UniProtKB/TrEMBL annotation:
It holds the Pfam family DUF4272. This is DUF4272 domain-containing protein. InterPro entries: DUF4272.
Length: 202
């Protein structure tokens, strides 16, 4: 992993520990992941500016409310939301993309480095048009753990660049990096935390 990152121009810290192994991790179920994907999509689309009436109608139709975290519940109820909250929740598309990939709706073998925002129209369209987002099951634990290890190391590089007052190495995008790290740590049950409490320490 370190060689891959180094070849891509990403600063590497050789002292970071390895993340959990397959034997040590229990992934979220496909149904849990599908529910979380739906919750992230609805808060992201509201963050992007969708009107409250339409948000409420979609949430009702898809049964989203029980899937929301406490912070997401508060945001969905906020009418109108603050610009700060809108911006923060619009970033959830990037977390949603991780789960979209993990559920097999993006067929790329890997997520790739967090250098650019995801394909929002494709994500939103698939979530909108797919009644059972868990239908394809979940990727292997090995695939998901490889991504979790990669993003952990990328997030260290982003944070170290911020501390040093530098641009992140390797073209890494800080917002995309953070959202992916959050989603992957939730997916692998890091510290067994619920969504709002997931940590992304490096």
């Amino acid at each position: 992993m370190e060689a891959l990152l180094s070849n891509e121009g990403v600063r590497v810290n050789p002292h970071l520990p390895a993340i959990e192994s397959e034997a040590e991790v229990t992934l979220r179920t496909p149904e849990e992941v599908a529910g979380r994907l739906l919750a992230l999509a609805i808060v992201a689309v509201k963050g992007e500016g969708l009107d409250q009436e339409t948000v409420d109608a979609i949430a009702e139709e898809r049964g989203v409310l029980p899937l929301l975290s406490p912070k997401e519940h508060a945001f969905i109820a906020e009418n109108p939301p603050s610009e700060h909250d809108r911006l923060q929740f619009s970033w959830r598309y990037e977390a949603a993309w991780v789960l979209f990939w993990a559920l097999g709706w993006d067929e790329s073998p890997v997520l790739g480095l967090p250098r650019a925002i995801c394909d929002v129209p494709r994500l939103a369209g698939t979530v909108r048009d797919t009644p059972d987002l868990a239908a394809r099951g979940l990727r292997s634990a090995n695939d998901i753990l490889n991504e979790a290890d990669l993003i952990y190391r990328c997030h260290w590089a982003v944070r170290q660049a911020s501390i040093d007052g530098e641009v992140p190495s390797g073209g890494l995008e800080p917002g995309v990096t953070m959202e992916r790290h959050h989603a992957l740590n939730w997916l692998i049950r890091y510290n067994d935390a619920e969504w709002d409490e997931v940590s992304t320490d490096t």
